[in-house]
Amino acid sequence: MDFKPFKMGKYLLLERLATGGMAEVYRARAQGAGGFEKQVAIKRILPSYSQNDEFRKMFEYEARLSSMLTQANIVQIFDFNKFGETYLLAMEYIDGKNLRQFVNKARKVNVSYPVEFSVFVINEVCKGLEYAHAKKDEMTGKALNIIHRDMSPQNIMLSYEGAVKIVDFGIAKAKDRVDETRSGIIKGKFGYMSPEQANGQQVDHRTDIFSTGIILWEMLTGRRLFAAESDMATLRMIQE
Q: CA 86 to CA 105: how far, in whole Å?
């Protein structure tokens, strides 16, 4: 079915980039006075979830948390508002592919990439994570203790101009989060979890470092580190 561009407020949605379980992402154009235009990415809650208070709060939290993070290796947030019955998050548009897409394409066409490339990508990721982990409240000076909790190749964007950007702080955890994750609830992609995350235990910034180490290992070896026939089997591999 052909996609037809449509408007939502000041944004013209041009192309659907991805659809997840509860939200979808579009390439869009922001329009303003005097012919002003800017290309952005729009993330919006799927209509069927727009009335879900828990997910709406999570979406609002993602917008609030991400807006605090202004660093070159983290996708920037520009705007968050409600349009009709749904919520829109406007963010920096990255013209490129995520790391999972890049690795899969390289494997498909049988092209190897140098060790230096892998080290460069992970080094840039670590810059963004270090910034987020060390971020303090600008008003109080207290540490926010931000943890991404979902570091995976899908959440690392590579732009065609050579930039490396971390995306999707949607399940990130900060010290002041109101709806604290209940003990034993597992969030994140199974194959990139730390053992404590896989066990549903309390995590700190080291879980992001562990996950990033898995990504580096896979880039260097060209194969998955924790991959089994089912999600539960994968979790058991990490737990053990």
A: 35
- Is 150 assigned a catalytic role? yes
Q: At residue 115, what is the residue type?
A: V
Q: Helix H segments across the chain?
A: 53-67, 99-108, 115-134, 195-198, 206-221, 231-239
- The pLDDT tens digits along the chain (240 residues) read 578 888 988 899 999 998 877 788 999 999 877 778 899 999 988 877 777 787 778 778 778 888 889 999 999 989 888 888 788 889 999 999 999 999 999 999 999 999 999 999 999 999 999 999 999 988 888 888 899 999 999 999 999 999 999 998 765 565 544 344 444 444 558 899 999 998 888 889 999 999 999 999 999 999 899 988 888 898 899 988
Closest by Cα among 153, 175, 176 to 165: 153
Active-site position among 95, 137, 150, 231: 150
